[in-house]
Amino acid sequence: MFNKNIKLVLAALVLGTAVWQFTESYIGNGIMLILLSLVFIFLYFKNEIILLAFLRLRKQDFPGAKKWLDKIKNPSASLVPKQEGYYNYLNGLMVSQTNMNEAEKYFKKAEKLGLNMDADMAMTKLNLAGIAMTKNRKREAEALLLEAKNLDKHNMLDDQIKMMKQQMKKMGQPRQQFGRSGRGGRKF
């Protein structure tokens, strides 16, 4: 994986070579080099490692996705801020199944850096609400659920939001005890 600035330098060099090919009347070579420079520019905005990790997640291969993400040694130097947000988002998704505290850190960092799509941000807020709910922070969970609902424009997370609201209602109810009667004796 290249540093994000190296990708721009490579794109500029290839584009300069394309212009030189045009001046030498090698039009086909120039067009091909322009297309090649567009690949470097695309990879500047969409990191190749994160794309490969998304493909692994799509196949439900969490260890494979984690292996790809571990190849990014220094995310702040290698990635633009939105890509770093997705890096933290993906790590949060994978870690959330084993360690809620670490997942919360990843999701909060992804929320702070921002994500390109509102649906991804809504999923981040929904995960943060679930973590807050498990830690008995009901007000924070309600606020995060409201934000997730507002960000979910196409109602893709509607069922999950309703289910989480029902679980929050159950959390607020006092627990009933069944079993022995209150008068101290056994009932036969």
TrEMBL record:
Q: Where are the transmembrane segments?
A: 31-57
Q: Give UniProt keywords alphabetically.
A: Membrane, Transmembrane, Transmembrane helix
Q: Return the InterPro entries for the record.
A: TPR-like_helical_dom_sf (IPR011990)
Highest rank taxon of the organism: Bacteria
Quote the SUPFAM superfamilies the UniProt record gives: TPR-like
What name goes with this protein?
DUF2892 domain-containing protein
Q: Which organism is it from?
A: Aequorivita viscosa
